[in-house]
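Order emerges. For instance:

***
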Amino acid sequence: MKRAVHPVALPIGRRHLELSEPGFHISTGISGLPVESPLEIDVNGVPCAILLCTPDALEELVVGWCFGQSYIESIADLASVRFKGSRASIMLNRSLPGGHDWREQLAAGFDASLVRSPIARLSTPPQRDDVIVPASQLIAMIDEIFDRFRQSDAPLGNHFTGLHDLGSDARMSFHDFSRHNATDKMIGWGVLTKLALDRAVLVLSGRVSSDLVYKAMRAGIKIVATRALPSAQAVRLAQGAGIAIVARALDAERTIYTHPWRIDRNR
């Protein structure tokens, strides 16, 4: 594989000798890099998880995480959300649920999740609905979301999620060094603002794993776009859940993996 080289001109008398050397930049600090901070979460006094996250939009993060884990179904299930140091304490208006559709193996890495939802085993997708977006509008949405993130002051290297609601025209974006956390922040924002996300387009900066599809399914999101690729498990789950996955969203040749009827390619 050829490596990128940059010519370096060295004076020798009146002549210059060009040498090819690999290009490097030397950093003298950590300014501008993503920050990882541990956040302990307990629900009704029971320790449940420790998340490594970018320490902003923490209320949205923990609410979105609780929603994704099936601890809550809406903001009505929340009694209080309190923060003290690196601990978030969630009190619910109900007892802890007895079972979860999926669980996260926190010690094994970000993608070590098991989707247990019956949706994952469905071979027949749900009936078609009216959540359809013209291709030209979808491309414009995706470009706008990525442009907004590039112009933001988010640290380089962070993942982000962007959302455009087709019904209300509401728009929002969040970032985190983990794409899972960024997605939880977005969904938590939807829970806190009582915004139904069933007509929203969710745009991700990183690859789509099955647990991210599950989070989108729990929130009612029908279209997920990414500049990367989905996993095979994510495609299977999206097929059963009625979610359209659009991959390589910034490329000239985009790929629709599931439910292509949601994207009107004639408009």
User: Anything to note?
Assistant: Residues 1-17, 98-114 have pLDDT under 50 and may be disordered. The chain has five helices and 16 strands.
